[in-house]
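Good morning,

Attaching, inline, the C-alpha cells for the sequence recovery test we're adding to the shared suite. The designed sequence is right after.
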C-alpha cells in the first residue's frame, strides 16, 4: 500500500471547470468517490477512495488506496 496521491486537472484544459464542479458538489453533499484504478498495463486493479479538498489555489482530490483481501497476509 502506498501513501496519498493528489489528483489535479490538466492546466488550461476545458475540463477544469467540470473538475471544480465535481469537487464542490462532493464537499457540499459530504460524499467521496470510490473507484478502481489500473496504473499500468497488465497490472492488478486497485480499489481507491477520492477525498475532495479545496486548497488556496484550486480544488483537488486526495487519492488513497484501500486495503483488500489480497493485501492481508498471515504471519
Amino acid at each position: 500500500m502506498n501513501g496519498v496521491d493528489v489528483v489535479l486537472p490538466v492546466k488550461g484544459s476545458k475540463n477544469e471547470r467540470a473538475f471544480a464542479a465535481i469537487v464542490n458538489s462532493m464537499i457540499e453533499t459530504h460524499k467521496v468517490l470510490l473507484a478502481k484504478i489500473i496504473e499500468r498495463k497488465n497490472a492488478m486493479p486497485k480499489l481507491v477512495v477520492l477525498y475532495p479538498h479545496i486548497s488556496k489555489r484550486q480544488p483537488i482530490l486526495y487519492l488513497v488506496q484501500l486495503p483488500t483481501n489480497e493485501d492481508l497476509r498471515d504471519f
